[in-house]
Amino acid sequence: MRHPHTYRSRRSGVTAVGALAAALLVSAAALTAPAAATPVRSPAAAADDSLAPTPPMGFNNWNSTHCRAEFDETMVEGIADLFIDKGLKDAGYQYVNLDDCWALPNRDANGQLVPDPTRFPHGIKAVADYVHAKGLKLGIYTSAGTKTCDNTGFPGALGHEASDARQFAEWGVDYLKYDNCNNQGVDARQRYRTMRDALRATGRPIVYSICEWGENKPWEWASDVGQLWRTTGDISDNWGSMLSILKQNLPLAPYAGPGHWNDPDMLEVGNGGMTDTEYRSHFSLWSIMAAPLLIGTDLRKASAETLDILGNKEVIAVDQDPLGRQGTVVSSEGGRWVVAKEMADGSRTVALFNESATAQHIATSASAVGLPKAAGYTQRDLWRHRSLNTSGTIAATVPAHGTVLLRVSADGHWAAHPPATELGVTQQPLVEAGTPATLTTTLTDLGRTTAHRVSVSLTGPEGWRVRAESPTRAGTLAPGRSLRTRWRVTAPEGTPTGPYALSLHASYRSAAGTPVTDVLPLTADVVVRPPSGTSYLSDLPWMSATGGWGPVERDTSNGESAAGDGNPLTIGSVTYAKGLGTHAPSDITYYTGGRCTKITAEVGVDDEKGTRGTVAFEIRADDTKAASTDVLTNTLPAQPLTADVTGARVVHLVVTDGGDGIDSDHADWADVRVTC
Length: 676
Fold this sequence. Notes:
Elements: H1 28-31, H2 43-46, E1 57-60, H3 62-65, H4 73-85, H5 88-91, E2 95-97, H6 123-133, E3 137-143, H7 161-171, E4 175-179, H8 188-202, E5 207-210, E6 228-230, H9 239-249, E7 261-263, H10 276-288, E8 293-295, H11 304-310, H12 313-319, E9 328-331, E10 336-342, E11 348-354, E12 360-365, E13 377-381, E14 386-390, E15 393-398, E16 403-409, E17 421-425, E18 430-432, E19 437-445, E20 451-459, E21 465-468, E22 473-477, E23 482-490, E24 498-509, E25 515-527, E26 534-536, E27 544-546, E28 553-554, E29 569-571, E30 574-576, E31 579-583, E32 586-591, E33 598-605, E34 614-621, E35 624-628, E36 632-633, E37 639-644, E38 650-657, E39 666-675
Parallel strand pairs: 1-2, 1-8, 2-3, 3-4, 4-5, 5-6, 6-7, 18-25
Antiparallel strand pairs: 9-10, 10-11, 11-16, 12-15, 13-14, 13-16, 17-19, 19-23, 20-22, 20-24, 21-23, 24-25, 26-39, 27-32, 28-31, 29-30, 31-39, 32-38, 33-37, 33-39, 34-35, 34-36, 34-38
C-alpha cells in the first residue's frame, strides 16, 4: 500500500474508483432489500469449491511490514511458530502468506523467478517445508501484469503464467494472491482466467485470490475463476477506510458462498490506527460478512487484547459457518446498523453496529432477522461469552463505533438462562465544569423471565461528584419493564474540555439465583458555553472531530494523513482564510447548549486533489438534519449552506462520500460560522 488514501497502493498509475461507484454505496433502502438468489455457477466451478469451502484464514505481512527489510524468512517462520504458540492454528488460521517483495527484480536467464537471497537465503521451498511441518500452508504473491505493485518493479506474471505457476507448485505453495498492477490494459477476465488455467495445470491444489480491486466487478464473473476476489481498493488502518469498505462489500452478499467469497481486504486489527473497540467491530463485521480473515498485524508484537480479538473462536465460528452465507443488512438508519447472518444450525448471528460517535440504542427482532415464532429465544453474546433469554427483542445500547455480536436461537432451552437486559442512557452526557448536569439511565428486562435483586450504579472520574436522585434498586424487574434512575453529575470547576469516561453498572439474578453483571461504558463531554454573537467555528473547541484520512484541520485543507500538513482552503480557485478542512467520512461535533440559532458556511471539494473527489455535506441539529447539499464535485464552486439550529444542544458537521468510495474526498467547510 504505497498510498492507501488514493487507493493507488496496488496500482501502477491506475486509480480504481469508477467500478465501485454509486451502485455499491447504495441507499439504506437498497441495502435492506431481500438478497437475490445465489448466481448460477458453471460446472467448472464446482470442482474448485473444495479448496475454500469456508473463507480462508491466515496471515499476510503487507499491512504490517510493507516492503521493509524486516519482511524475511525469519519473520515468516516466526509467524508460523506463533500460530502454534498463541493457539491461532487451533482457532482455524492456516495460511502464512508472503506479499510483494519476496523476489529479485529480474528473472534469471531461463525466465524463472528468483527469490531474494537476502530475504530468503534458503529459498521459498524451504520456507514452505517449514510451514508445512507445522500443519500450516504457505501463500505467495504476484501480479497479473508485467511487474508487481511495489515501486521497485518486481516481475509480474503476465506472459509467464504457466512457468510461474509451475514454480509455485514445485515450491509447495498453497495459496496465490494475484494483483492487478502494470496490467498493460489487457482484459481482466482474460488475465485472471489464464492464471487459473495455469494453476489447474500444475495438479497442485492452490487457493486462488483474485486481487483486481473490484474494478471489473469480479463477483459477476469470477466464481469459476478463483475462490475469492477483492471487492474494493486497499484497506488502511483507520476508521474511515474500514467503514467505507464495509459499506461497499455489504451489498454483495448474494455472490458469496462456499468456494467463492467476497474479499474486503485483509484485517488491520492490532496495527494501532484504531481503538480496540473499533478493532472488535472490524473483526465482528468481517466475520458476519463471511470474509477471508487474513491477519495483517505483526504477531511478534501483538498485544494480549489483539490476540484476544483475533482468537475469539465464537466469532470465528460465525465466519467459518459451513452454510457459507454472507450477512445481509436488516436496517441502517442513522448509522445504527443491524446485519444478520443465517447459520447452518438455523440460528441467526446478529451484529448491532454503531457507526456514530456516541452511544446508540440499536434494536431489531427475532422475526426481522428470519427466526421462527417461538415462546422464547436463547441469545448468546459472542464477545462476553454468555447466554441469556429474550422474548424476541434483540437490542443493546452500543458504545460509539462498537458492535454487539449475538447468536440467537429458537432452541427451546431459553428458560435455562437468565433474562437479557439492556442498559441505556436517555441522552448524551454533556457537562459544563462546575455546573451540575442531569443524566437519566435505564435498565430494561428484554427477557421472558423476571430479573431479581436488581441494582445499578454510575461511576465517574476521580474528583467528580455522581449522585443518584431516584431509586437505584428494585426487588424484581418484570419482562418489558425498566428501572429508570436520574443522576446528578458534576465535574470539578476548571476541568478541561474533552471526553471523560463514565461507567454504568448493573447486577441482577435469575429466578434460580444465577448472577448477571453488566456494564455500559459512557462518555461524558465537558463542554463550554458558546460565546454570544457570531464566531468562526475554527476558533472554538469542538467536542469531537473525525475524518477519513488524517485529522480534521483548522483554517487549512485536510492535506494528507499527518496533522498540520494542510494547505490554504481553496474551492474553485477561491482561497479562504478561515474554516475546517477534512476528508470523508467526517463528523465534527460542537456544543451549542440550546443557545445558538444559525450556522453558515461555504462548502465544497478542495482544489488540492485536482479533478478528483465527490462529497456531500450535512448539518445536523442534535439528531435532526437541518441542512444538506447534493453531491458536490471538484468542478463546482463553493456552495452556500445555512442551517437553523435553534434549541439544539449539539450540532454535527457531517461529510459523506459521493457514492463512489472515499478516494480523494477532501472537503472544506470554508468560512463556517455560528450565531449564538
